[in-house]
Design a protein that fits this description.
The complex is a heterodimer of chains A (402) and B (204). Chain A is built from 15 helices and 16 strands. In chain A, 51% of the residues are buried. Chain B has six helices and seven strands. Chain B has a seven-stranded mixed beta sheet with strand order 2-1-7-6-5-3-4, sandwiched between helices. Classes of the chains: A alpha/beta (402), B alpha/beta (204). At the A-B interface, helix 11 of A face helix 5 of B.
Chain lengths: 402, 204
């Protein structure tokens, strides 16, 4: 932190003071503000000392990307442009990060999928780019509505993957995200996901840090790989992949390289726990029935839990904040007394339930559902009904109400 | 996370796991680790000095961050490394022990043309270890990613004891690692080597 520390107390060209990030996030006064999720992205980026923002329009992230354009016009971002496509954007982000810039981008749904080749490359090249993913449907027939299927693909890329429930999570985690992902022992890209529209296009009260405070700039000299060196891996990999030579040493090097990326994901645990006060949050974890969820499925679960409580049924909640690193030990501990583990999800595949099943002992306790997808909402009643079914109680089918 | 995994000299496995994936965590400032267990830095200083003094071929691998005087700190650290090397050389029995200083000048893959007597490469560091029969080594001034690659490959295929003198957060893949390395810290290690001279049994 020596180089970053030397900036603290100085002002940038917008008269913002480079502030100790811990003080800024935990001690500075907060102002309650009523904003949409997209506007919150803008407000976080305003304070993030970003050198560059690149994006390509795709719903529902376009609004956030356009608002970041306003930040550029106001002088808060070093440079800003629209790429030729999502693939181009993510490649351009890589170029900028290779050159030592703090980079921010946003994408969604099919855009994420189109750019997918870049994400393991970012992770392998140890580029701490931050990408907001405002999740939406990815499959045909076309849907721009919320659906979290794309997260399951991102989880295997070597990136850090966090799943925000609210605009407040979003605001804090954008700023904290840079602090975690730029640690030299981590130094990985972060996919900060939210459920599109539900978070991006609804207004919520968010406590903002002072506008005259910002993060210290990125220090590329702390990078675990050399900055933009065309002769050395990782850049050299692009033009002269030595690992394509057919011998044990080349294969072993590539294997070790991959392991090192995942080792860095593991190392992020310590920093993430410190910044985010744990990888999960729990409420009433001693209950017989636990709902385990991430994103806005957590909010719907809270409603369902309150409704069940009114009927005298006690249900606990585990909110998963980070998917990579995966909070395996935390989930095992939180669910150790649960007889039923219910996992509501906004996608057809049930990837979160699969992860939890692979984590907990006696995984017949894990109930994958309810699922909605393609933009359907998840009324709390379908969660309560699922739980009552599990408990052997009679319920009405919500759809039958007409 | 608690772990029973110990970061020990190999050869460990065809493809050993990263220590981080086995639950080994990095030390906080003021600490170091030995075999994955967090210890006070001074304890690690003593252990590292003992390893150098008991090795047949104690070797320092300085990397590009200290091989070029790109800032004052780097130049100062380079002098401290040279001093540590000279100290080890003075303190070992030259009849049966040979201290070495082999640079890792860059990270370009050089297999199969590398000359393992004059340099080490992070993509195939085992070649230099095998060729020179190095049984204890210290990485310093190597970018963290490249150092971790080297340390893991060495653990996988050789029996060399690895030490990392890291300027950042340290390395779990080394058997012993310091963090926040400075010229002063390297000098302290040299002092430990001097202090323990004659008290450590030489290699068989």
């Amino acid at each position: 932190m020596a180089t970053q520390a030397s900036f603290i107390g100085q002002k940038n060209k917008k008269d913002q003071v480079y502030t100790d990030p811990w003080k800024m996030m935990h001690e500075a006064p907060r102002t309650p503000s009523f904003f949409t999720g997209s506007e919150i992205i803008k407000e976080a980026v305003r304070r993030a000392s970003c050198d560059l923002m690149i994006a390509y329009p795709i719903t529902p992230q376009s609004e956030a990307a356009a608002l970041c354009g306003e930040l550029f016009a106001e002088g808060y971002i070093g440079d800003y442009f629209r790429g030729e496509s999502e693939f181009a954007v993510m490649s351009q982000c890589a170029g900028a990060a290779f050159g030592g810039a703090r980079v921010f981008t946003t994408t969604a749904g099919p855009g994420t999928m189109r750019a997918m080749e870049n994400f393991p490359m970012w992770a392998g090249a140890r580029l701490p780019i931050q990408m907001i993913v405002t999740c939406r449907g990815i499959n045909s027939p076309l849907s721009i509505q919320p659906d979290t299927l794309e997260i399951s693909y991102l989880m295997q890329t070597g990136m850090l993957v966090w799943h925000a429930e609210t605009a407040q999570d979003f605001y804090d985690w954008i700023l904290m995200g840079y602090m975690v992902s730029e640690e030299p022992d981590v130094h990985l890209p972060l996919a900060l996901c939210c459920d599109g529209f539900f978070v991006t296009h609804t207004k919520d009260m968010v406590d903002l840090t002072p506008v005259d405070m910002c993060l210290p700039p990125y220090d590329p000299y702390r990078s675990p790989v050399p900055c933009m060196d065309m002769e050395c891996p990782p850049v050299r990999m692009m033009r002269d992949p030595f690992v394509m030579k057919s011998n044990y040493i080349s294969y072993a090097t590539h294997a070790s390289w991959q392991q090192e990326v995942w080792a860095a994901v593991e190392r992020s645990r310590k920093h993430t726990i410190r910044w985010m006060n744990g990888l999960i949050d729990t409420e009433n974890a001693d209950a017989d029935v636990l709902v385990v969820a991430s994103g806005t499925a957590v909010s719907q679960s809270r409603e369902a839990i309150a409704m069940l409580e009114d009927e005298g049924i006690r249900v606990g909640l585990v909110k998963i904040k980070t998917l990579r690193p995966w909070p395996g030990e935390e989930i095992r501990e939180a669910t150790k007394h649960a007889k039923h583990i219910v996992i509501p999800e906004f996608n057809v595949a049930g990837w979160l339930a699969r992860e939890v099943r692979a984590t907990v002992p006696n995984n017949e306790r894990v109930h994958a559902g309810p699922h909605v997808c393609g933009g359907m909402t998840m009324p709390p009643e379908i969660i309560t009904s699922e739980i009552k079914d599990l408990l052997g109680m009679k319920t009405e089918t919500l759809a039958a109400r007409g | 996370m608690t772990t029973s995994y110990k970061v020990m000299p190999g050869p460990e496995h065809f493809l050993p796991p990263s220590a981080s994936s086995m639950g080994v965590r990095l030390p906080d400032p003021g600490q170091a680790h030995i075999h994955g267990t967090i210890v006070p830095e001074e304890e690690a200083m003593e252990q590292a000095a003992r390893q150098f003094l008991s090795a047949k071929v104690p070797t320092i691998f300085p990397g590009p961050l200290v091989l070029w005087a790109w800032n004052e700190k780097a130049a100062k650290k380079a002098k401290a490394i040279r001093h540590l090397y000279e100290t080890i050389k003075e303190c070992v029995d030259s009849k049966i022990q040979q201290a070495m200083l082999i640079p890792m000048p860059d990270y370009r893959p050089k297999y199969p043309k590398i000359n393992p007597e004059v340099e080490i490469n992070p993509n195939h560091p085992n070649l230099t270890i095998w060729h020179n029969k190095i049984d204890a080594c210290m990485f310093v001034g190597v970018h963290c990613h490249q150092a971790n690659l080297s340390l893991k490959i060495i653990r996988g295929g050789t029996s060399c004891y690895t030490v990392a003198m890291c300027a950042q957060a340290g390395h779990e893949d080394a058997m012993l690692s310091f963090r926040d390395a400075t010229a002063e810290k390297i000098d302290r290690l040299a002092d430990w080597v001097k202090k323990l001279k004659g008290s450590v049994p030489p290699p068989d």
